[in-house]
Input
Amino acid sequence: MNVGFDAKRAFHNQTGLGHYSRTLVHSLAKFYPGNQYFLFNPKRSPLFRFNEENVHEVVPNRFPANLFTAAWRSSWVKKDLKKLKIDLYHGLSHEIPISIQRSNIRSVVTIHDLIHERYPEQYNAIDVKIYNKKFRYACRHADKIIAISEQTKKDILEFYKTPAEKIAVTYQSCNPLFGELLGDAQKRIIQLKYELPPKFYLYVGSIIERKNLLSLCKAVFILRNESNTPLVVIGDGGKYKEQVRDFIRQNDLRKKIIFLSEKASAISSKTFQSGEDLPAIYQSATAMIYPSFFEGFGIPVLEALWSRLPVITSNVSSLPEVGGDAVHYVNPQSAEEIAEGMKRIADDQQYADELRQRGLVQAKKFSQQNCAQAVMNVYEKVMAS
Output
């Protein structure tokens, strides 16, 4: 089978959509080597590479497609799909080419979340309209929809009234590097590179309102007289980040909250930007704290579980699907609960070790092989129908 992918995020996105795309393609190429996988990329990027013999990058190389790359990706790419005899096209992030349903090419789309439907006020109004149009079109015309969690399936049913039998819940995996235990010397190199403190809590994610970093900073403030362990933040943001910064300044927390992504060592490091250094950072932390109000999946939680890192996360949306019985749950509205969780993990070594052990068991449910098999099952059903 020749499988085509919308690979824009696979080559250009350094956050959740990119991680999903890259991990899935690598997994399929490894566990189903008899297929050929074609990555349709609007323009080349130096960030990420696919070295497998059965994975092929395709970029627009003729006028006008090489100039109007957005049009190529959303519609004109169908000519290349036919030329390369693509049997099935997978839109990895909410989109499929316009009118692909009129070709002989079957299609699958992954819907990660419908957060723009639940929280439209947190987005630019024009973006919400664009997302609504693209997501609804994909859900209506794709042969099958992959939802990355039961929460996302529930939202597709609620907002788009899509027939339930058209949706398959297929969980995602993460970069296998997170599952490889590193030695003290390897971790020490990364700690020195980024001037990390001996002990620290870790937050990884975009600094936006929904991700709720402000409540975590309030928890750090609550613990200010009991703990000297700082919080390391990996991620960036805009207006909401400034709100967080205002709270940090007003409460004299600048020494307790470190924005690692702003450091020159991180900005100039290709291995930081590509995520290669993240496993060592995870494995050096005291706990991962992810107090999001709403997620379609929550990939940093899974990365932390593979890293044998205790996790504090929210008891809402998809996060209990990912965390199972292996994480410490909190009400994301309560900075006090978050602070209590941080203190317990820091003070109770037995509890922290239990979370690490249960975490690895939980993480294995989301192995690359399991997730690749679930997606391949969807492909085979689509091709057989």
Notes: The longest strand covers residues 106-111.
